[in-house]
């Protein structure tokens, strides 16, 4: 019995028709699995792995992103569901990296000709992209893995946004990306017209379908990318030809597909209309006549002119308000106090804004020191690149500030190589800012007492003593007025880059004319440097400065402070101890043990004896600073010291503090100065 007798002819024909349809619909899958090739003229029957916003539309378009109801950056991926064999070198087989693919795509922006952000053909070791970011990362990377060699990703980007951080050439280009969005090669979107024999530009965001061919020749290690409008045959010249060895980047098993991303404000619909791929030869040509059509582009709703005007006016008002508020806040931030009498001091007044920028907003990391008079900050003037130190001193503008500023300006005219230069001032909101030269090596006491600084040798110490003496002589006798420093000590001697000593901190200084009596009654200074006559007269003179300089000389030579605590109640007075060493005939025993005997004996004896001579109880018995400099320079012989210890006087610690507590805390000059062992602030580096 024949087959036609058993089954009716219609049944047989229906069965054959079903088998043919089933066979045809599974051809792409068979190619992909057996011969590593496939072709999709539309994606209705495609077996793809989709994630994110990617989907296949009802008419067969592969839509990676869309612009409907978007409130966050979109990411869409579409990969062939099975991995393909690429780099088989690791398996011992011959390499088979050559591949060919072509596809038709379209970028339809929400706003005409404004892309956001782009799409890419991708070869990746995985089809799972879980931690990627949209926007400029195109759904391939994030900020932490972008550029890593472990990515093993090759992408041909169709970029419609300009991202300078990735070195984009423009907002309409094609790029070859290897593990990074910093393209190894890129070119503006265009194609070579075979008919006209020239390149013609293309707009990726035109919304028109375009055809892209990607071919890699393993033998020549050459990657070629060719672009053209849909329906035009493949141009004779590629857009890019990049020599590259993909065996360094691709693994044995890789996925092929597409990735796309949008921004939040600027978005695009990214479509793929058809796709052909071949891992073993030239990819088949797409039949563009069978590709599904793009949806009709939505027309932008016309906004009434009146509404546009209202929006523009509202935006302008908001901008004016913001600008005005910013201006007021900025002025408040840099607001200064300026009065008419300050006009004559114009050249000496610094702009607060410049000081603010110089000190980086008075950051704590720029803080050099702090004390009873305020804080000091390091800074660099933005206009001249000069290093400065800025001291912030609290003041009451109602109490003698005019006279105090006048003194500051006078002190600013001082010019001596052994004085820290006072450059000028600024006033702002209850603060007086004094600007000084910056001393990079800090204060002398750090070298004498801190293990953080290197030990100073005798040559350096003796040069510092002579320099400070010269500066003090200039203050007392060689300038147009007499300047009383009133707080000479190691912490107020600053060292420049060559370790030359400079006397600083004139916050306690006072001026008076030559030949007149100083009327300073507000006693200030530091315990151990205060002359004993201050208990009677409460009046600072050049003699009290000499007394303090004597204590300073002994401090430098002995490496000890003028008053040191020994035990719970006992105090060692440096002047008494040095005198005792001299009386016993062993004055060199008072020298700083850190010097280990490496000093000029005659110079050490001179400094110790001169320190005692300056520390005599009677002011008239002390030498002047001119005599002191003559002794130090070897131009005069040092007189004999008195044998009585009572001739040398200083406050004992408790006596000094009892005396200081009895002194009023206000100043006739409004300087806000008050006595403390921390009153002097370093104008220097730490």
TrEMBL record:
Pfam families: Lectin_legB, Pkinase. It catalyses: L-threonyl-[protein] + ATP = O-phospho-L-threonyl-[protein] + ADP + H(+); L-seryl-[protein] + ATP = O-phospho-L-seryl-[protein] + ADP + H(+). Residues 666-686 are annotated as: Disordered. Keywords: ATP-binding, Cell membrane, Glycoprotein, Kinase, Lectin, Membrane, Nucleotide-binding, Receptor, Serine/threonine-protein kinase, Signal, Transferase, Transmembrane, Transmembrane helix. PROSITE patterns: PROTEIN_KINASE_ATP, PROTEIN_KINASE_DOM, PROTEIN_KINASE_ST. The chain crosses the membrane at residues 305-329. Residues 1-32 form the signal peptide. It is a single-pass type I membrane protein. ATP binds at residue 392. Residues 362-632 form the Protein kinase domain. GO terms for molecular function: ATP binding; carbohydrate binding; protein serine/threonine kinase activity. GO terms for cellular component: plasma membrane. Its EC number is 2.7.11.1. It is found in: Cell membrane. CDD domains: lectin_legume_LecRK_Arcelin_ConA. It comes from the Eukaryota. In the N-terminal section; belongs to the leguminous lectin family. In the C-terminal section; belongs to the protein kinase superfamily. Ser/Thr protein kinase family. This is non-specific serine/threonine protein kinase. The gene is LOC115994431.
């Amino acid at each position: 019995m024949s087959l036609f007798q058993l089954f009716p002819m219609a049944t047989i024909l229906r069965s054959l028709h079903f088998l043919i349809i089933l066979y045809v619909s599974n051809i792409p899958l068979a190619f992909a699995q057996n011969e590593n090739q496939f072709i999709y003229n539309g994606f209705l029957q495609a077996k793809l792995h989709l994630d994110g916003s990617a989907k296949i539309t009802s008419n067969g378009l592969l839509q990676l992103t869309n612009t409907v109801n978007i409130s966050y950056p979109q990411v869409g991926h579409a990969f062939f569901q099975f991995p393909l064999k690429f780099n088989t070198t690791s398996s011992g087989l011959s390499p088979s990296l050559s591949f060919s693919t072509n596809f038709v795509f379209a970028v339809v922006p929400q706003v005409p000709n404004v892309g956001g952000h782009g799409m890419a053909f991708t070869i990746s070791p995985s089809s799972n992209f879980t931690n990627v970011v949209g926007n400029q990362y195109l759904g391939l990377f994030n900020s932490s893995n972008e550029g890593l060699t472990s990515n093993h990703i090759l992408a041909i980007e169709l970029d419609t946004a300009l991202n300078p951080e990735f070195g984009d050439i423009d907002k309409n280009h094609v790029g070859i990306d290897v593990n990074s969005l910093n393209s190894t090669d890129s070119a503006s979107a265009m194609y070579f017209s075979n008919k006209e024999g020239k390149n013609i530009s293309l707009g990726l965001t035109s919304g028109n379908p375009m055809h892209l061919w990607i071919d890699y020749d393993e033998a020549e290690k050459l990657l070629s990318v060719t672009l053209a409008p849909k329906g035009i045959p493949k141009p004779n010249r590629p857009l890019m030809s990049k020599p590259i060895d993909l065996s360094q980047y691709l693994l044995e098993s890789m996925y092929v597909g597409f990735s796309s991303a949008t921004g939040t404000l600027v978005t695009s619909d990214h479509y793929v209309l058809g796709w052909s791929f071949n891992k073993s030869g030239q990819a088949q040509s797409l039949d563009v006549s069978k590709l599904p059509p793009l949806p009709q582009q939505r027309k932008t709703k016309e906004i009434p002119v009146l509404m546009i005007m209202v929006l523009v006016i509202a935006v302008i008002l908001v901008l004016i308000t913001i600008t005005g508020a910013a201006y007021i806040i900025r002025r408040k931030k840099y607001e200064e106090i300026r009065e008419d009498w300050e006009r004559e001091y114009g050249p000496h007044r610094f702009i607060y804004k410049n000081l603010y920028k110089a000190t980086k907003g008075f950051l704590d990391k720029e803080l050099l020191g702090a004390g009873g008079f305020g804080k000091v900050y390091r800074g660099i003037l933005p206009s001249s690149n000069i290093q400065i130190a800025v001291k912030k001193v609290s003041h009451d503008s109602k109490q003698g500030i005019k006279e105090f500023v006048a003194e500051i300006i006078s002190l600013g005219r001082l010019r001596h190589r052994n004085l820290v230069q006072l450059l000028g001032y600024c006033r702002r909101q209850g603060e007086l800012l004094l600007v000084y030269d910056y001393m990079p090596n800090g204060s002398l006491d750090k070298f004498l007492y801190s293990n953080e600084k290197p030990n100073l040798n005798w040559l350096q110490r003796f040069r510092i003593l002579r320099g400070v003496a010269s500066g003090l002589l200039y203050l007392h006798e060689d300038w147009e007025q007499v300047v009383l420093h009133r707080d000479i000590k190691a912490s107020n001697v600053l060292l420049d880059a060559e370790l030359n000593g400079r006397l600083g901190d004139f916050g306690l200084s006072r001026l008076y004319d030559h030949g007149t009596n100083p009327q300073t009654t507000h006693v200030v200074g530091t315990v151990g440097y205060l002359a004993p006559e201050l208990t009677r007269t409460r009046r600072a003179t050049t003699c009290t400065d000499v007394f303090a300089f004597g204590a300073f000389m002994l401090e430098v030579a002995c490496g000890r402070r003028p008053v040191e605590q020994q035990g719970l109640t006992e105090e060692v007075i440096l002047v008494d101890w040095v005198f005792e060493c001299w009386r016993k005939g062993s004055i060199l025993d008072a020298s700083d043990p850190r010097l280990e005997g490496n000093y000029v004996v005659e110079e050490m004896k001179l400094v110790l004896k001169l320190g005692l001579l300056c520390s005599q109880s009677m002011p008239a018995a002390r030498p002047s600073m001119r005599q002191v400099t003559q002794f130090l320079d070897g131009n005069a012989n040092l007189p004999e010291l008195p044998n009585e210890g009572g001739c040398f006087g200083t406050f004992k610690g408790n006596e000094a503090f009892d005396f200081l507590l009895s002194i009023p805390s206000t100043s006739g000059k409004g300087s806000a100065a008050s006595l403390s062992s921390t009153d002097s602030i370093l104008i220097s580096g730490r």
